[in-house]
Amino acid sequence: MNPEWSSKAEAEPGGSAIADQNTGVWLDRIGAIEGTDTKMGLRAHLDKALEQGANLFTVVVYDLPNRDCKAVASNGELLISEGDMVRYKNEFINPIAEIFADPKYQSIRIAAVIEIDSLPNLVTNLDIPKCAEANGPGGYREGITYALNKFSPIKNVYSYIDAAHSGWLGWDSNFDPAITLIANVIKGTDAEWDSVAGFVTNTANYSPLVETYLPNPDKNVGGGPIRSADFYEWNPNFDEKGYAIEFRKRMIAKGAPTTIGMLIDTGRNGWGGPERPTQVSSSSDKNTYVDESRIDRRYHRGNWCNQPSGIGYKPWADPYNGVDAFVWVKPPSESDGMSEPDFQPDPDDPAKQYDPMCDPDKMSNAAAYPTGAMDEAPHAGRWYSEGFQYLLQNAYPPVSTPAGPPAE
Ligand code: BGC
């Protein structure tokens, strides 16, 4: 349990219902390893884990050069054009690996989530110059290969590679290239498949766990399969349970051992509250049928910033065959990005910017739909009380429900 996140959650009205949950500790800049006067560093977190008698620590490794190459809300401190791969290796990955390898911490299973959004950006966003650059030397592949090579000899580190989410890579035209790209990176490491414990879907995203009322994407309504409705844009993967299981299956077909497992970030994909449908639509119009039946209430599935969703299932091991756990990688209530165009830079992370996807008054960049982002949000990673209240109230299952296996 991250004591810093936990005490902030505890201080929010109603927050004690979730304040005891395991959430990811993000190493999102070189300075985060050491920590500051007001923020615990990596050793402090691991010492606290020992003190708690914890057997698991969830950590996110997130500082690649050209980080967040498509969006700008989480732009990072390192740039390929500045030759910063050298700093990534020497000042970021090496010190993290040294701390992980301290025998003092060998009783703690360290679940390391590696570089969110990075390899998926190389699948779909190569038209963006910063992503094209990240596709080359000194870019994402090199950084991830280096991190895996440093972490894999440490027996209690379990690395999980980011697998984006169903609403991003779910189309076959994205899915297969993503599997090939990610598998090739893993096969290129020293320990090959032994470098990874598996993959994580939905990190910091909002895609629902199960689209309860839409189990069959090929179901015909009004003369076409429901996956051809505007909301799904022909993507046959509607939810994270199906996507995670399919992702694992395709990795195994590429040579991954059957011991690999999936994680699903369920921190903010609950979508409960009054807007949640309680039955399947009876409409004979495909779009109306989908819109009235879907758990995902976003205007568009590409909307990723501060969505008014709800807390999802609490962290839980082995929810389904092949899925290692539900996890809360993105700590609920931490912002995805600044909503105001006339912002002050974040003193800890001056590269973080305003991305219109985080502005409720803007249209989504993917299509002609509003962003749906909640208003008056601070910089990515900063505490966002209004957002927290929304997430609590719209939790599904309700936050009073104890952690346990999923009902679906
Ligand atoms: C931010 C990180 C932050 C993380 C968790 C990301 O969007 O860029 O700085 O640690 O979210 O809230």
From TrEMBL:
Domain of life from the UniProt record: Bacteria
GO molecular function per UniProt: hydrolase activity
EC numbers, comma separated: 3.2.1.-
Compositional bias annotation for Polar residues: 278-287
Location of the region described as Disordered in the Swiss-Prot/TrEMBL record: 268-293, 331-366
Record keywords, A-Z: Carbohydrate metabolism, Cellulose degradation, Glycosidase, Hydrolase, Polysaccharide degradation
InterPro entries referenced in this protein's UniProt entry, alphabetically: Beta_cellobiohydrolase, Beta_cellobiohydrolase_sf
Signal peptide: none
Biased composition (Acidic residues): 337-348
Family of this protein: Belongs to the glycosyl hydrolase family 6.
Descriptive protein name: Glucanase
Lineage: Bacteria, Pseudomonadati, Pseudomonadota, Gammaproteobacteria, Vibrionales
